[in-house]
């Protein structure tokens, strides 16, 4: 019986040696151009002021928040008691953090509106500057920024919002 099992799997336990020319070669990666001199001295691990070349300067990437976008965001945030800017919708969240905040609000029976930041890149970039918060979801309560998922999970939403 052992012989028939071996016959059914003739290469079981055997090693097959391939010549180097037959082995799959890793793809070659083109080298990226060297960073500009102004950026080379910056380190993500240390504050910019600790480096002499970056002293007195700060590096910040801002999306231009137009006055029209600011007015629209003010109107949306001000016209709803609870607004969640999230990835996806409340019925179909597109990330786990957005899903978590939706579940928290639903468990408290809080009526809330959502806006999908994935549907509009300008909205997504503008919100980062509007709230000074780089990630999503972003929860607004009574016209004020409340926080993201971590803050929502870590704090109790006041009972006044559950009415």
Detailed description of the structure:
With 163 residues, the chain is of the alpha+beta class. The protein has a domain at 80-162: Glutaredoxin, CATH 3.40.30. Helices cover 33% and strands 10% of the residues. A 4-stranded mixed beta sheet has the order 2-1-3-4, with helices on both faces. InterPro entries: Glutaredoxin, GRX_PICOT-like, Monothiol_GRX-rel, Thioredoxin-like_sf. Belongs to the glutaredoxin family. CGFS subfamily. Residues 82-145 form the Glutaredoxin domain. May only reduce GSH-thiol disulfides, but not protein disulfides.
* Rg on CA atoms, Å: 27 Å
Q: Show unreliable segments.
A: 26-63
The count of β-strands is 4
CATH architecture of the domain at 80-162: 3-Layer(aba) Sandwich
Helical run tally: 6
Kindly report the spatial arrangement of strands forming the biggest sheet: 2-1-3-4
Order of helices and strands: HHHEHEHEEH
Mean pLDDT: 73
CATH C-level name of the domain at 80-162 = Alpha Beta
Pfam families: Glutaredoxin
InterPro entries: Glutaredoxin, GRX_PICOT-like, Monothiol_GRX-rel, Thioredoxin-like_sf
Protein name: Monothiol glutaredoxin-S7, chloroplastic isoform X2
Organism: Panicum miliaceum (Proso millet)
Q: What would you say about this model in short?
A:
The chain is of the alpha+beta class and 163 residues long. The protein is built from six helices and four strands, in the order H-H-H-E-H-E-H-E-E-H.
Question: How do the strands and helices of this protein lay out in sequence?
Answer:
Elements: H1 2-8, H2 37-40, H3 67-79, E1 82-86, H4 96-107, E2 113-116, H5 121-131, E3 138-141, E4 144-147, H6 149-154
Parallel strand pairs: 1-2
Antiparallel strand pairs: 1-3, 3-4
């Amino acid at each position: 019986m052992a012989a028939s099992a071996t016959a059914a799997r003739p290469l079981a336990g055997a090693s097959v040696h391939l010549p180097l020319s037959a082995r799959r070669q890793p793809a070659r990666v083109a080298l990226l151009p060297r960073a500009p001199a102004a950026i080379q001295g910056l380190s993500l691990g240390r504050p910019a002021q600790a480096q002499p070349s970056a002293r007195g300067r700060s590096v910040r990437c801002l999306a231009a928040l137009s006055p029209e976008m600011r007015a629209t965001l003010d109107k949306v945030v001000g016209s709803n008691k609870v607004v969640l800017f999230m990835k996806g919708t409340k019925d179909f969240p597109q990330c786990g953090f957005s899903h978590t905040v939706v579940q928290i609000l639903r468990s408290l029976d809080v009526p809330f509106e959502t806006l999908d930041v994935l549907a509009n890149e300008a909205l997504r970039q503008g919100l980062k500057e509007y709230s000074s918060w780089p990630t999503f979801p972003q929860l607004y309560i009574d016209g004020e920024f409340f926080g993201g998922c971590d803050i929502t999970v870590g704090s109790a939403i006041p009972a006044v919002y559950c009415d």
